[in-house]
Amino acid sequence: MRRTMRPYVICHMVPSIDGRIVTTRWKLSSRALSEYERTAETFDADAWMIGRISMEPYAGKAKVPARKSGQPIPRTDFIARRDAESYAIALDPSGKLTWKSGSIDDEHVITILTEQVSDDYLAFLQSKGVSYLFGGKTELNLKWVLEKLRKDFGIKRLLLEGGGKINGSFLAEDLIDELSVLVAPIADGSIGTPSLFDAGEGMGPVRHLKLVSCEPRKSDMLWLKYKVRKSDSKR
After folding, report:
1. Beta bridge partner(s), residue 132
2. CA 63 to chain centre
3. How confident is the model over 222-235, as pLDDT tens digits?
4. Which residues lie below 8 Å from residue 74, measured CB to CB, with a gap of 6+?
5. What are the beta bridge partners of residue 8?
6. Whole-model pTM?
């Protein structure tokens, strides 16, 4: 049986020396932030993906109106556009992002939902021209989501720039192919804040990496690139 393809996934992040990823206290310079964008551009990705909280500043604060009437909306994927040069993807299982439009700059928005979202919310997304894919009834099946992104939008290379739980979930499912970390010259020292990978309570998955390159960058940053050694030869 032919195995469904998925995008090649590159997790690209800016952690501190001690692996923390909440940057609000760090006071990174604009040069350091630009360095992150410059390194991201080298991957020539078709799309980037983040979680709901990180996506909120991009999405806006539109109002979700209640429908006065209408037939129930089937829980089938809605594709508003499939010919964009780039895609911005949000993992939003509960449907809380209130999109002002179906694009971020020139990038088409795709949001990933569970089937528990309301008909009002689905009608709202359709009215804004936001594409949506269902990743499961109550929880997201990340492998299935990736396969849909490849099949429906032709996405071959994806930048994963999530929080610790999202990154950790992808790592646990063995769905990360490459790791790109632009290490900030910061020792965070905090306890209990998100780290690069937070798979869940207890012992997380162990993944072995192969160093691809190590490169000093501006603002005392260090760019490390690794391939993830797959636990299975198939991807």
Report:
1. 78, 111
2. 24
3. 999 999 987 654 44
4. none
5. 157
6. 0.91
